[in-house]
Design brief:
By secondary structure, the protein is mostly helical. It is built from eleven helices and no strands. About 75% of the residues lie in helices and about 0% in strands.
């Protein structure tokens, strides 16, 4: 079932009232902002855990902290997936809103007939690939957990859990003063890689 069908029923998306689209747009923007705040809160919590790991006095304490970080990191990944999905939905709604705002101009044109004859699924696919801008609308439209105490006592084998092993190595780097907690948090959540990609991209411009 397409996004439009789930939220607006079986009607042609082009028949959805502009007021409903704008209402959905506001709701999606609010949801995206909330998810972004939740992700930022997790980043802060992970940084605090690395700070706490500096004072860990045993491998058992380190492993407890590492497991908490792994759990938080998984929650962050889930939130990032939700964030991406919400942004996709927002793009669909935004593009359809721009089309509806220009409905009077478009009606009767081959472009409108083409859009109007698409199934909701086809229209959704096309809208997802467009990046419409109200300022050059026509041009754009036409192009378009779980470690137990027994495990700890027996000696931990990280062979099957590379993520946890990496977190433990990062904790040791923090304890040795090789990494700051904030940098360590970026490292295990993948933010560091994203920053390097962005820096490389900016250098190439």
């Amino acid at each position: 079932m397409s996004f439009f069908s789930r939220f607006f029923g079986k009607k042609n998306p082009l028949d959805i009232p502009l007021s409903k689209l704008k209402e959905s747009q506001i709701k999606l923007e609010y949801q995206i902002e909330k998810v972004e705040k939740d992700i930022a809160a997790i980043d802060r919590e992970i940084a605090l855990l690395f700070e706490q790991a500096k004072k860990a006095r045993s491998k058992s304490e380190e492993l407890t902290i590492a497991t908490k970080i792994k759990t938080l990191n998984q929650r962050k990944k889930n939130l990032q997936a939700t964030h991406a999905q919400l942004n996709k939905q927002l793009m669909l709604i935004s593009n359809l809103t721009i089309i509806k705002e220009n409905e009077a101009i478009l009606k009767g044109t081959p472009t409108w007939n083409l859009l109007n004859n698409m199934s909701p699924e086809e229209l959704e696919r096309n809208l997802a690939e467009m990046q419409l801008d109200a300022r050059n609308f026509s041009e754009n439209l036409n192009q378009m957990l779980g470690m137990t105490d027994q495990t700890i006592g027996a000696g931990v084998d990280f062979g099957e859990d590379e993520e946890l092993a990496e977190i433990m190595r990062t904790i040791h780097a923090v304890k040795e003063g090789e990494l700051e907690p904030e940098v360590a948090a970026e490292k295990v959540t993948g933010e560091e890689r994203e920053k390097k990609k962005k820096e490389k991209w900016l250098e190439e411009l």
